[in-house]
Amino acid sequence: MADKQISLPAKLINGGIAGLIGVTCVFPIDLAKTRLQNQQNGQRMYTSMSDCLIKTIRSEGYFGMYRGAAVNLTLVTPEKAIKLAANDFFRYHLSKDGQKLTLFKEMLAGCGAGTCQVIVTTPMEMLKIQLQDAGRIAAQKKILAAQAHLSAQGGAQPSVETPASPRPTAMQLTRDLLRTRGIAGLYKGLGATLLRDVPFSIVYFPLFANLNQLGQPASGEKSPFYVSFLAGCVAGSAAAVAVNPCDVVKTRLQSLQRGVNEDTYSGILDCTRKILRHEGPSAFLKGAYCRALVIAPLFGIAQVVYFLGIAETLMGLLQRPQP
């Protein structure tokens, strides 16, 4: 039982450290996922994750792959901290005298964790998506302008480079949303975010706990380093793919800018119907492998940091009495 009684500050610090490391490692793949999910059949800019990343580097430079990373790095600490700490909190209070939780109670704890985290997740995703997708919209406009110029000239002259439109920053987006829509502007897509994150946590946390338990050398002992990492990777990728259709809907709803001839949506049901009608069921799996590649190491790293107790070690060093 003692292992579960970890201080709240330690839980928050562990979650924050894990989030910062994970986001830094996998953010370019997350950018590719957003752009692949947002492109519709009218104007397909990218054919795959690698194609998206190569074209992004060519048109926006290496750091173009990290557009929106500052938002994630700022808010991922409270987001991951809330998620991990809330799950630990609910599991602790749902357990009876240290007995193993039933599958239903594990899912209930995950549901509580997913519900708590959307307080931070929704505005973070809202801002991140605008910044990530800005390059795709700009590239599409540039191509269409070049095509229009060639058409006007009868294909006789090369296209003239059009001036790049300024891309907004996270602070500009935040100010504009607060000024025009109030706090609700930052929480656009809240329902879709809940629809993604609650089922994700219901699948992830019980699956991780059971996979991690398989590698425990003895009852009450912590699993080895590699077992926690692999359990986090497997559980994270499985949960990510399972809820990918909800992630596609959420990404489309939270995107404020649209490309040429791309649909607009009024809500979750309207978005789902239009995707089915115009793009088919396979569209709900757009970016699924990217999302699995993002979530697997992200949660693998998170669980390793969490189970190693890095924050407890740091706090112990700070609290050690001076000689």
TrEMBL record:
It is found in: Mitochondrion inner membrane. The keyword Membrane applies. It catalyses: L-glutamate(in) + H(+)(in) = L-glutamate(out) + H(+)(out). The chain crosses the membrane at residues 12-32, 292-311. It is a multi-pass membrane protein. GO terms for molecular function: amino acid:proton symporter activity; L-aspartate transmembrane transporter activity; L-glutamate transmembrane transporter activity. Its main location: mitochondrion. PROSITE patterns: SOLCAR (PS50920). Solcar repeats lie at residues 6-93, 101-214, 223-312. Gene3D superfamilies: Mitochondrial carrier domain. Coiled coil: none annotated. GO terms for biological process: malate-aspartate shuttle. InterPro entries: MCP (IPR002067), MCP_dom_sf (IPR023395), MCP_transmembrane (IPR018108), Mito_Solute_Carrier (IPR051028). Keywords: Membrane, Mitochondrion, Mitochondrion inner membrane, Repeat, Transmembrane, Transmembrane helix, Transport. GO terms for cellular component: mitochondrial inner membrane. Mitochondrial glutamate/H(+) symporter. Responsible for the transport of glutamate from the cytosol into the mitochondrial matrix with the concomitant import of a proton. Plays a role in the control of glucose-stimulated insulin secretion. Belongs to the mitochondrial carrier (TC 2.A.29) family. This is Mitochondrial glutamate carrier 1. It comes from Equus asinus (Donkey). The gene is SLC25A22.
